[in-house]
Write a structure and sequence with these properties.
Oligomer: heterodimer
Helix content of chain B: over 70%
Distance between the termini of chain B: 11 Å
Radius of gyration of chain B: 26 Å
Number of strands of chain B: 2
Strand order of the largest sheet of chain B: 1-2
Number of helices of chain A: 14
Number of strands of chain A: 14
Number of helices of chain B: 16
CATH architecture of the largest domain in chain A: 3-Layer(aba) Sandwich
Structural class of chain A: alpha/beta
Radius of gyration of chain A: 22 Å
CATH architecture of one domain in chain B: Orthogonal Bundle
Structural class of chain B: mainly alpha
Order of helices and strands of chain B: HHHHHHHEEHHHHHHHHH
Order of helices and strands of chain A: HHEEEHEHEHEEEEHEHEHEEEHHHHHH
CATH superfamily of the largest domain in chain A: Periplasmic binding protein-like II
Strand order of the largest sheet of chain A: 10-9-11-8-12
CATH superfamily of one domain in chain B: MetI-like
Chain lengths: 344, 370
């Protein structure tokens, strides 16, 4: 009976190989040998950050991060396979080697980074955090002015706990309106049954686009929690970690130095600034140091996907349906938190 | 019982056809005070509900155009969304330039299903035809045959999606699960203790856990336990899990049929000198399987809808693909349209199965026809 054989084989695999579940060699070698980077993206899709379009092609902020890493490894943005993962399946998928890297808005936390899960977060690509949205007509400019407000929130989430903490911390009171379903929650807020709608900033912005009059609502500047999002890889491959980190840093550095997809060639040819020249591979050996396939990796990345700001504006910025302000996700010279170590 | 009921039922039916419509209505819907009240309440509910539903779905709906036009109107359904995303929902992430391959595969599948609907065509040739078609369908989807490119580049199963993958998982899961189910059911009634307890163990273990758990095991846990360097395709792992699951459930349905058959049938077969295989193939199984058609179809329909659970491991089945379409920044905000469309699609497929099984049941049971 073939069925019995397979069953026995899988049972045997369970008992024999369970204690010895180790991965062969460093992840980067495996990626190079395979010829493609397997990038775990959020399925069914996360508006602006990674969704398949009508023709089934992935696009979005996180998707471009994957493409940038693929350029560093292979000097070719097409050498990336997008593997949809869900919130439940993302960590097992990464741990088992089904994907090489997660690029799906995973928050960097202590337990995920350390020995509990054995993952590694080379860099932060998006600073998210819990925020609050109010109707413009309330004339509230700060979350500190929300004493006594009714707040729409999803029950049983960290969002709900953070909300309670925030109000207690500032000696304010609030009345929660809890609705489990996100669409239903939005309709509740839209119908005016609560003054405040709280969720993570990026999610809140996406929800705002679906309100009856999105322009009548404003997201307050306070962030109630910290949600640093970034690509995650397995622990144990320093080379891949460096490569991902310096790919992200190249995107940030390029924006800081004003290098865009439009002017990168011209700047590479004419710049006398040693910092710029090192980043673009005109001098030094940065590409070799990080293990990139090509010394001009940064130049190719910027030309293909643009600098950090270009990626941001293309997928989630103010001119997109998501309409996110740069805020914390701006380079440090413009008042944001994006700060890349120098390429030297 | 059937013979007694027949002469009484016939005149009633005859009278109804000749009576005026008004009389029929009065008798059927206002026959007793309670019936009259129920009818009036139902009419009132319909009066309240139908106009807004029809208004939304038909009269105020937008059938073509862009998302912006839909949002501007703010009334009625935006079927333009379905218009835009229809083929995406059918083919999922399959490379756009190669969509003719899953399209051909689906057409081939439809032709085979169409042929199989006619009982006159049921023969060994049809089974061989299905086997050949299955190989061809697989080659169409994959593009290669044992490493040789036949229909262009290879498309890994990771990129298969949409209705194609829903049909693929359900049909191959049920087609391979069915023979296994029969073997399990026979094994469970076997007099050989090892066979019997093995089958009992498989059936009870698989039925004892939810499908989600089995899918999760197959998709997430199994790769962790496989020796380094050995990988089994994710879709095939899911397909395998789904097959065992459907086999375990169908096995119990088949067992019900085996037990429902009178002892006389078994004894008659044995007295004819038939061996075990002949007895089962010629006497027992045809009757047992026919008897359990309603229960089998019930299980089929349930299992077909269970394919949506593959979403938890990130496979883009029909429903997940629609949800992905909802995430398109250009087409955000039309969940109602997507869910109504999904419900209609599943309903049409399940109702089709149900209707066909009823016809099959009737055709296969001339002895109970009135």
């Amino acid at each position: 009976m073939k069925f019995a054989t397979i069953f026995a084989a899988s049972a045997a695999a369970f008992f024999v190989f369970a204690p010895a579940a180790v991965l062969a060699g460093p992840a980067l070698d495996a990626i190079k040998q395979r010829g493609t980077l397997r990038c775990g993206v959020q399925g069914p899709g996360n508006p602006g950050f990674g969704v398949p379009d009508t023709q089934g092609r992935w696009s979005g902020f996180n998707v471009d991060i994957c493409r940038a890493v693929a350029i560093s490894i292979f000097n070719d943005p097409s050498k990336v396979e997008f593997v949809p993962v869900t919130t439940q399946s993302r960590f097992p998928a990464l741990a088992s080697g089904e994907v090489d890297m997660l690029s799906n808005n995973t928050t960097w936390t202590l337990t995920r980074d350390t020995n509990v899960n054995r993952f590694n977060f080379p860099a932060i690509v998006f600073y998210d955090g819990q925020a609050m949205m109010v109707p413009r007509r309330l004339n509230v400019t700060s979350a500190r002015g929300l004493n006594g407000a009714t707040v729409c929130v999803q029950p049983g989430t960290t969002t709900e706990l953070n909300l309670a903490d925030y109000f207690r911390q500032h000696n304010m009171t609030f009345r929660p309106v809890v609705v489990a379903d996100l669409d239903e929650l939005r309709r509740t807020y839209d119908a005016g049954r609560c003054d405040v709608y709280t969720n993570d900033f990026a999610a809140l912005a996406a929800q705002r686009t679906l309100l009856t009059n999105p322009r009548d609502h404003v997201i307050l500047p306070e962030r109630v929690s910290k949600e640093p999002l970034g690509p995650a890889i397995r622990q144990g491959d320093e080379e891949l970690s460096n490569l991902v980190a310096w790919t992200v840093f190249a995107l940030i550095d390029a924006e800081e130095m004003g290098i865009t997809s439009a002017n990168v060639d011209q700047i590479a040819a004419s710049s006398t600034n040693p910092v710029v020249r090192r980043l673009l591979g005109a001098e030094g050996n940065m590409g070799e140091s990080i293990g990139a396939a090509n010394a001009l990796y940064a130049r190719t990345i910027i030309k293909t996907v643009g600098n950090y700001g270009e990626i941001f504006e293309r997928h989630i910025g103010t001119n997109t349906p998501l309409g996110l302000e740069r805020g914390q996700n701006n380079v440090w010279t413009k008042g944001g938190l994006l700060y890349a170590p120098p390429a030297r | 019982m059937a013979d007694l009921a027949a002469p009484i039922a016939a005149p009633v039916a005859a009278r109804a056809t000749f009576a005026s419509v008004a009389t029929a209505l009065r008798v059927r819907y206002f026959g007793t005070p309670l019936n009259a009240v129920i009818t009036l309440v139902c009419l009132y509910v319909l009066y309240k509900m139908l106009p807004p539903i029809l208004g939304w779905a038909v009269f105020d709906a937008h059938w073509t155009g862009t998302a912006a036009q839909c949002r501007e109107a703010r009334s009625g359904a935006c079927w333009a969304f379905i218009d835009e995303k229809f083929w995406f929902a059918v083919f999922g992430l399959y490379p756009y330039e190669l969509r003719w391959r899953p399209a051909t595969m689906l057409s081939l599948f439809s032709v085979m299903v169409g042929l199989s609907l006619f009982r006159r065509l049921w023969s060994k040739q049809l089974i061989y035809g299905w086997l050949a078609a299955s190989v061809l369908m697989f080659v169409l989807m994959d593009g290669t045959f044992f490493g040789v490119e036949i229909f262009g580049t290879q498309v890994p199963t990771r990129l298969w999606g949409g209705l194609t993958v829903t049909v693929f998982i359900a049909v191959f899961g049920l087609a391979t699960g069915y023979p296994v189910a029969i073997l399990l059911a026979l094994g469970r009634r076997s007099h050989m203790p090892v066979v019997k307890w093995f089958c009992v163990a498989v059936i009870e273990c698989v039925r004892g856990v939810p499908l989600v758990t089995i899918i999760f095991m197959a998709a997430i846990m199994l790769p962790l336990f496989l020796p380094a360097g050995m990988t089994i395709d994710r879709l095939f792992r899911i397909q395998f899990a789904y097959t065992i699951f459907s086999a375990a459930y169908l096995a119990e349905v088949v067992r019900g049929g085996l037990q429902g058959l009178g002892r006389g049938q078994y004894e008659a077969a044995e007295s004819l000198g038939l061996n075990y295989a002949q007895k089962m193939r010629l006497i027992v199984l045809p009757q047992a399987l026919k008897m359990t058609i309603p229960a089998q179809v019930n299980t089929f329909i349930g299992l077909f809808k269970d394919t949506t659970l593959v979403v938890i491991v990130g496979i883009f089945d029909f429903f997940t693909t629609l949800r992905a379409a909802l995430g398109d920044p250009n087409w955000m905000g039309f969940p109602n349209e997507a869910y109504v469309f999904a419900a209609l699609t599943y309903f049409i497929l399940c109702f089709g199965m149900s209707k066909y099984s009823q016809r099959l049941e009737r055709d296969l049971s001339p002895e109970t026809r009135r």
